[in-house]
Write a structure and sequence with these properties.
- There is one protein chain.
- This protein has 115 residues and is mainly α.
- The protein has one domain.
- Helix content is 62%, strand content 0%.
- Helix 4 crosses helix 5.
- The longest helix is centred in the C-terminal third of the chain and has 17 residues.
- The mean pLDDT is 90.
Length: 115
């Protein structure tokens, strides 16, 4: 039985949401004109791996994404909404900690700012 994923806001994800880092807003800063975020393919591959490995079946994930997209993440563009929903699921189920995600975000930001 899988753990339920509630609609309770997660502080780190709320902070990310408030920062408005949608790809359409930040791509020009880096001189990128592609409408799709560069991480979109990796996100889809990750979702497929989670589904095939039965850690997060696609249908279950889509139901959760739909619910979170109607409640917590409704103002966010599609790819970012899907990414935040996945993070929400992983955090809610204890498969990822806010501290670990925060550290990974810090690493990515440092790489972007260094480039």
């Amino acid at each position: 039985m899988t753990a339920t994923v509630g609609d309770t806001p997660i502080k780190l994800l709320e902070t990310l949401h408030a920062e408005d880092h949608a790809w359409a807003n930040i791509a020009p800063r880096y001189g990128v004109t592609d409408a799709d975020p560069p991480w979109k393919v990796s996100l889809y591959a990750t979702l497929e791996c989670l589904s095939v490995g039965e850690a997060l079946p696609s249908l279950e994930r889509r139901h959760i994404e739909d619910r979170l997209g109607e409640t917590l993440y409704r103002q966010i563009p599609g790819p970012e909404q899907q990414l935040l929903s996945l993070a929400h699921i992983l955090l809610s189920r204890g498969l990822l900690s806010e501290q670990d995600l925060s550290e990974r975000l810090r690493t990515v930001r440092q790489r972007l700012e260094a480039g």
